[in-house]
């Protein structure tokens, strides 16, 4: 499990809003890519789901992703915001990463109620 960045803070105004800055020497950048590091999409999704579980106490089992889009790379030390929204009726966790220059990625993680 990839550790969260050191500069991760919950924002005021309700659950599911975070600021983060992934430090340049964070292990998430290892191998992605030498000389031009970016934060992998897999790590972005993992962090969104883990933080969603903490913020909303989401029940159920992860089933898949919908409407997943990676619009711009996330670089080391770039200030970011992560917005999460939980729809308990649909079992959907919507996430959006944004940076100084706009949206970085977005998607919906789908969960099925636990049996």
Could you please describe the fold and organization of this structure?
This protein is mainly beta and 115 residues long. It has a domain of 77 residues: Thiol Ester Dehydrase, Chain A. Helix content is 14%, strand content 41%. It contains 1 helix and 6 strands. The protein has a 6-stranded antiparallel β-sheet with strand order 1-2-4-5-6-3, covered by helices on one side. The protein is globular and about 45 Å long.
Keywords:
1 helix, 14% helix, 115 residues, Thiol Ester Dehydrase, Chain A, mainly beta, six-stranded antiparallel beta sheet, 6 strands
Text of the CATH class of the domain at 39-115: Alpha Beta
Indicate the mean pLDDT: 94
Question: How many H/I helical runs?
Answer: 1
Integer-rounded radius of gyration: 14 Å
Task: Order the strands across the largest sheet as they lie in space.
Answer: 1-2-4-5-6-3
Biggest β-sheet: count, sense, barrel? 6 strands, antiparallel
Described by the principal axes of the CA atoms, the overall outline is globular
